[in-house]
């Protein structure tokens, strides 16, 4: 019994396969990548059949790459792993062969045949086991809970019950329609998300990641708090492509955290800076991680519009982190890197400046209205073309083949999470839980819009704890989305609000998966890192409320409305940063900090009255604080 319980709650570990098996996996992954590229950009294929083949292929890899738990072999799959891998292939072949019949049949009207029931049941088990091995107990328990709720929750009291759903009915919806396992999350993983990860992998392999780090170092390395500012810039640029705060922390944090510690930053602060910077990458256009693609597919909003709307809120996020790091470094007397440790901008641009071009191609293709699939394809071609200019960055056939395989390997855990999210969505739709959840939110918050937003934000964070960003968003969108849809907000506002808090769950205590990743590198307590990251990114918890009440921050409305909203919010972010750090030109007393915090909130709030009120509070604060008044007066006089 103890062993069974341990099996249920343990997460598998990624194996370090023997060289021979690793090469086979790499080759199989490259073939999968080429197939995805071909079926998404060259030829039209049935989406259901393509998704089936994609999922089964990934599951074949997954059970070879990930052990069942810490007790499993770390270099070679065991008999059980081979059985699960072969079962994944067999189920995939069955679904693909029967795909025409499955697509054409009328759901629930024509009963499933015995082979359907067997294949569907096996695929359900494989998906749950794949989720447990790669993502962990958090998402697995959510999926299991929804399966149990769907099958046995019809007699629950307090309005949670529903019409009884039999196992055949459940399996029919979940496995043989596009409303369950093969729904939006998995389709996105097999198309947009895969190709953007491909772009990020090629860019990194060609040397683009090194260029962005060197450029960040050249721009900010010599300044006050230089190492932390390098982390902010480089992690943000890498994070927008990786779409995973945890992955970003592990990749860039292994470089930036030790440097920060060496120059006087505490272990906890170094980890906090990296976590805050990495988490924001999933909110930073033009890529914004795979969650933005899911939002586009789920809501019908053009991805281009989502990326444009996300520009200002993301810049405000990084302005807050950057300003706090600057003020904290000033307060602590922390300088920048030595002259010999920082490359010159000219050298950084000369060695890798061409890597800016693929990002220009990506952004230009989005603005021109190309689909995300072709945007990612154009950008990847741009990377290969740019890399070919110099022998040191040129990608030969071997490098391209390895990048293709690496892309598929990177997608394995993402696909498992998206498949699990599809099961949750199907369960919610089948039982009408979304509407019941909305009733619960209104019961807790009443009819007060602000309280409804607060409760929705808290629920989105809770639902996303311990989950990958795509799963966190889709779960929150399905459960919290109906609540916001019933209010007077646009779909863009509502889903951007949900996206922000789903992403922030990666660094919000007590789970804070990104903080746990940073803790291993920084040698600090995860909770301390998480609390510090939330403090550095405090604006991210405030700005979504601002763009819900005024869409100027989403670049909607007249030019004057947008300009006033953006400038006011930028000033408000700086005031909030000063209030949180207790430092602005010099140390601030408690009263000044409270006043500036209130003024910052008012500046971020939409409307002329809050802006005027905030300005008055700032002027009064400067006037009644003698030392601050003298320093401001001296600064104005010197510049005059």
TrEMBL record:
<dbReference type="InterPro" id="IPR011853">
    <property type="entry name" value="TRAP_DctM-Dct_fused"/>
</dbReference>
<feature type="domain" description="TRAP C4-dicarboxylate transport system permease DctM subunit">
    <location>
        <begin position="123"/>
        <end position="543"/>
    </location>
</feature>
<feature type="transmembrane region" description="Helical">
    <location>
        <begin position="407"/>
        <end position="428"/>
    </location>
</feature>
<feature type="transmembrane region" description="Helical">
    <location>
        <begin position="80"/>
        <end position="97"/>
    </location>
</feature>
<dbReference type="GO" id="GO:0005886">
    <property type="term" value="C:plasma membrane"/>
</dbReference>
<feature type="transmembrane region" description="Helical">
    <location>
        <begin position="109"/>
        <end position="128"/>
    </location>
</feature>
<keyword id="KW-0472">Membrane</keyword>
<feature type="transmembrane region" description="Helical">
    <location>
        <begin position="21"/>
        <end position="41"/>
    </location>
</feature>
<keyword id="KW-0812">Transmembrane</keyword>
<keyword id="KW-0813">Transport</keyword>
<feature type="transmembrane region" description="Helical">
    <location>
        <begin position="597"/>
        <end position="625"/>
    </location>
</feature>
<feature type="transmembrane region" description="Helical">
    <location>
        <begin position="354"/>
        <end position="387"/>
    </location>
</feature>
<feature type="transmembrane region" description="Helical">
    <location>
        <begin position="306"/>
        <end position="325"/>
    </location>
</feature>
<feature type="transmembrane region" description="Helical">
    <location>
        <begin position="135"/>
        <end position="152"/>
    </location>
</feature>
<feature type="transmembrane region" description="Helical">
    <location>
        <begin position="471"/>
        <end position="490"/>
    </location>
</feature>
<feature type="transmembrane region" description="Helical">
    <location>
        <begin position="527"/>
        <end position="550"/>
    </location>
</feature>
<protein>
    <submittedName>
        <fullName>TRAP transporter, 4TM/12TM fusion protein</fullName>
    </submittedName>
</protein>
<dbReference type="GO" id="GO:0022857">
    <property type="term" value="F:transmembrane transporter activity"/>
</dbReference>
<dbReference type="Pfam" id="PF06808">
    <property type="entry name" value="DctM"/>
</dbReference>
<feature type="transmembrane region" description="Helical">
    <location>
        <begin position="497"/>
        <end position="521"/>
    </location>
</feature>
<feature type="transmembrane region" description="Helical">
    <location>
        <begin position="184"/>
        <end position="203"/>
    </location>
</feature>
<feature type="transmembrane region" description="Helical">
    <location>
        <begin position="562"/>
        <end position="585"/>
    </location>
</feature>
<dbReference type="InterPro" id="IPR010656">
    <property type="entry name" value="DctM"/>
</dbReference>
<feature type="transmembrane region" description="Helical">
    <location>
        <begin position="440"/>
        <end position="465"/>
    </location>
</feature>
<keyword id="KW-1133">Transmembrane helix</keyword>
<keyword id="KW-1003">Cell membrane</keyword>
<comment type="function">
    <text>Part of the tripartite ATP-independent periplasmic (TRAP) transport system.</text>
</comment>
<keyword id="KW-0997">Cell inner membrane</keyword>
<feature type="transmembrane region" description="Helical">
    <location>
        <begin position="47"/>
        <end position="68"/>
    </location>
</feature>
